[in-house]
User: Which sequence fits this backbone?
């Protein structure tokens, strides 16, 4: 069974641009969660999608948005990039969310110049 | 609201020595507790989780953790570490709800010396 895949693995953008990150969950998993990992703030929850609906949301500004497609693949979008958005963005999938084990992808390393 | 405190940002230990990584949580409601490991340049992997029942939880790679409700702690232990255990370890908490978000601690970097 293939694991969680994230594309691209590395990305360099400049301030003010927007970016879209993609996550393909494990086959059969319907829940996808996104996290931001930085040295200063650690791991922070962005949002969770389940069956194309946002089920939970962290404390991030509206510049951060996401969506989930009918095949459970998910995208995360960040508009008007700021230097502080530089981070490792991790995606995790699980069968139903809740306490189901989350399987993490390798992450997308975003650098904002 | 829930919060998680990992008391040690770095723990150096010699190979084959025992190790304990400390985690304390704060919550006004019942929670589920987790430990994750992150190897260099990789995503997170679940080591173990406490949902209910026995307070001693055994996980992968020889790790175990004990849930102590009175001390609101969930410390991770391994009796004998290996070089391959070098990684960052995260404690996390989640409220009893399918729609609740998971809160991570700041992480503990475990470095193993030969």
Assistant:
């Amino acid at each position: 069974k293939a694991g969680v895949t994230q594309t691209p693995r590395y990305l360099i953008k400049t301030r003010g641009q927007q970016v879209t990150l993609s996550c393909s969950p494990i086959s059969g998993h319907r829940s996808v969660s996104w996290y931001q990992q930085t040295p200063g703030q650690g791991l922070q929850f962005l949002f969770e999608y389940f069956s194309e609906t946002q089920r939970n949301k962290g404390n991030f500004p509206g510049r951060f948005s996401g969506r989930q497609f009918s095949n459970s693949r998910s995208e995360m979008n960040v508009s008007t990039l700021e230097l502080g958005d530089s981070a490792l963005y991790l995606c995790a999938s699980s069968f139903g969310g809740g306490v189901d084990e989350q399987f993490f992808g390798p992450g997308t390393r975003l650098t904002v110049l | 609201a829930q919060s998680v405190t990992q008391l040690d940002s770095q723990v150096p230990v010699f190979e084959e020595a025992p190790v304990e990584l400390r985690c304390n949580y704060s919550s006004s409601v019942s929670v589920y507790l987790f430990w994750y490991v992150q190897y260099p340049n990789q995503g997170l992997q679940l080591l173990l989780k406490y949902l209910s029942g026995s307070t001693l939880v055994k996980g992968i790679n020889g790790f175990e953790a004990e849930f102590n409700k009175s001390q609101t702690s969930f410390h991770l232990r391994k009796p004998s570490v290996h070089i391959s255990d070098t990684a960052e370890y995260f404690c996390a908490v989640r409220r009893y709800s399918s729609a609740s978000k998971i809160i991570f601690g700041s992480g503990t970097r475990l470095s193993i010396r030969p």
In short: The interface with chain A takes residues 32, 41-46, 49, 51, 90, 94, 97-107 of chain B (CB under 8 Å). The radius of gyration of chain B is 14 Å.
